[in-house]
Specification:
By secondary structure, this protein is an alpha/beta fold. The chain has 17 helices and 13 strands. Helix 9 packs across helix 11. The radius of gyration is 21 Å and the shape is globular. Keywords: Carbohydrate metabolism, Cellulose degradation, Glycosidase, Hydrolase, Polysaccharide degradation.
Amino acid sequence: GFSATMPRGFEIGVSTAAFQIEGAVRDDGRGPSTWDEFMGQPGRIADGSNASVATDHYHRYREDVALMKELGVDSYRFSLAWPRIQPGGVGGPNRAGIQFYDRLIDELLAAGIKPMATLFHWDMPEPLQHRGGWMLRDTASRFADFAIIAGEAFGDRVDKWVTINEPTTVTLNGYALGIHAPGATLMFDSLISAHHQLLGHGLAVQALRSVGVKGGIGISNVHSPVHPAKDNMKTRAYAELFDIIHNRIFADPVLLGHYPKFPLLSRKLFKPLIEVDAADLRTIAQPLDFYGLNYYMPSRIGSGAPNDDATPDGSAESVRELPFHLRPWPEFPTTGFGWPIAPEFLTETLNDYATRYEGVLPPVYITEGGASFDDVVADDGSVDDANRASYLADHVSAAFAGVEGVDVRGYYVWTLLDNWEWAAGFEQRFGLIHVNDQTQERTPKRSYHWLQKVLRART
Ligand code: FCB
């Protein structure tokens, strides 16, 4: 069966982000983040909820680690809340913040689970956001300072480091379209935020190495294979543009040391990226120990303004002002978010990487993948999510089957617990474990038991 075909040593983990699970936003000296600010603004969050309690993981981390141990995962990817560790984003560390992650990491190690720590999963300290956040070049250096603090505190125990999670999403949803924090609607003027994140990534890699962390270092980029909805020149051109904006701006500089070649007609839009310093690109292209890929879905691009049949999810929103839009993909079933379920496009993602980054791609981990569904909760709180289990079976096997030219070493399921899904609030449940919003009670779903069986059957 499934477990027998999984290569020996293929790493299975679960993935989370601090802001989505921790809560305790005022505890032990944590400072506000841009998301604290954003979630308080009217109309920003689909269900009007906020993450000030979230899944209360800050107080329940022991229980959550115990659930991971029971599950049998090899590793756990979590993020370090910058505003907990360095509340204002400058100056010395907040001891209590460091101590929380000390306890978490020690608990993981005692459970035999390898910690993978992400430095930035979107919770920018509010004072830095106030000055301009990633629109400001100086933020890259502030981020490197934070990396030094984190590296010094946890570098002896963290097995893998991820600098930044999905800079794509931060630039597109946060700075271009305003559907994520900080809510800016700068459209193409947001592009420099991509460069500053990438520069922050490169400086953080150097910073972590300078303090001698023991673990490997990488980045997590999200990739979506892009297809034109119609085979005509215009639609193909828009599809290429979307591929550049969504995928290549973020991957090419890291792996190839330069931005992609921009199509002649859109060169003006990309001017800020064309004019960057060669020295910046050298910083960005630090050699990496691994490359993290988040894969959720492919993108099908149509030309013209979005119309009524556009997918009813955040990603359709996310191109609403552009001369092209995401089109539904009727031949695939969809998740709760309306995202097409298409494991063959994880294979295509790997093929894209094999072709584009031949000879320069370090070992790859799928650092996120998973699905939200409208889970039906039985009276006892249990959830029979056969759909999520089959989503994971198909995607995990696509990952370990791999493609020639890419060394895929593992898959991290998004996510351990139903949590606060950014602008969707509590409306989208992605967890292997159901969380009762009122009582915080955790109930493993069928997908959890499925994965547990798979992991136990490994030889
Ligand atoms: C990814 C994010 C993660 C979560 C999943 C569903 O883009 O990295 O925090 O929101 O999508």
